[in-house]
Protein: DNA-3-methyladenine glycosylase II
Organism: Luteimonas wenzhouensis
Amino acid sequence: MPTLGLPDPSICEQARLSRDARFDGLFFTAVATTGIYCRPTCPAPPARSRNVRYFASAAAAEAAGFRPCLRCRPELSPADGSWRRGDDVLARALRLIDEGALADAPLATLAARVHVGERQLRRLFRERLGAPPIGVHGTRRLLFARQLLTQTPLPVTRVAMAAGFGSLRRFNACFRQAYGMAPRELRRRPEAGDGEVVTLRLNYRPPYDFAATLDFLRQRALPGVERVDDEAYARAFADAGGTGWFRVSRWPRRAGDDGHALKLELHGCPPSRMLATVERVRRMFDLDADPQAIGAVLSRDAALRPLLRRRPALRLPGGWDGFETAVRAVLGQQVSVAAARTLVARLARLHGTPLPPGLAGSGLQCLFPEPAQIATADLSGLGVPEARARTIHAIARALLDGRVDFSAARTLEDFVERWTSLPGIGPWTAHYIALRALGHPDAFPAGDLVLQRQLLTDEDCPASPAARAAALEGRAEGWRPWRAYAVVHAWREAALAPAQPPSRRAPPTRRKTA
């Protein structure tokens, strides 16, 4: 039975022969005569078509008995952004697997979290990805282990821990069964030290405007909590394993390297948190997006088409921490980006956790406060209305008691409904949080004035705010499931537009679409 998640065979064939990086991770090629599977960008001479099979996922290729290529290294492929995005059952299940849902719980628990039966979930995975959920989970762990073995000097015992294996013996057995070799045989560099600084390559599908993402984050950067310049983003993190920090920059271009990657430097990250941290960074920088799929939908709209032509490489700039993003959203209500940043930075300075002096070279000073630190904190020093302070307290308490969360199991509708039940949280705030904290591709804060100015014309722009939001939501129905990318395009267009003198600026409801 054909796999539903696989592009048309003729498209796969053309992409394979041309080594088209836009299809990296969207399918894998396997050669029957060698028993090897590859990325479509593999630099090896292409095999004859009659010997090639196509698979929708690395897990499907491995389930069919193929082993990953040592040259193109399938473990570096970005994930298929289409299957891991939005509210589809498969998308939510994959995100939960990425968060480790099958590491310590059975498949029945995962199925219950996405509200389907276990048998139905298996069927969806088989039909669309060509492999069962446990196969996707296992392949994900082993491919991450391969990346650590080939890119870092981490000892094999720490690699096993980082990939989610409870014992070195179990890791060696699984690795040898899957790849026919011991983990040590794959090493490209000798083991050395404890790997306090781990450097990893994070691939993406081109095009990708990393400069635009940095610009967005730099405008909102909190002094002491994060550091953003023209080259990189850095911030500290902490958990039960200790405190560390990371830096994200461009992967240096070299001869024979397509350069479609970012460079992640992890400082002091415990092995048990590495995979989760990598997944979090990938979401924050939207590295698994599929620009072709997004552009194909949004470019149908006459207002969005010129924006996509000008900037086809924009991504969703996410937030590192959900609670921080929610607080930013509340403090950013009805004020400028600069004013909101000042307020959030003041909160971090007053209530954040100072970093230990051992984080030399990071240039960072504190961690953003946790919900438990804010739930009963005195916020009178923030200089915000009392109602807004009450909303921040309410968010912290709701996160602590489980009334709201940032779970990948939730649909956008469920997420918005839960968050708007809190005092001071309306649809704009809830959708903004979903866009930046979850990276939800269909989040759409229709009440945003910038969106209305950029995306509504004179003819369809009513006078009242509620009517404008309703008109914009109606207009955006054709942009599903990628409405959040239309938001990012509109925000970027407005940010780069020449400033007009206040006396000559068009009224908000009359500004023409760019």
Q: What stands out?
A: The chain has a mean pLDDT of 91. Residues 195-270 form a domain with the TATA-Binding Protein fold (CATH 3.30.310.20).
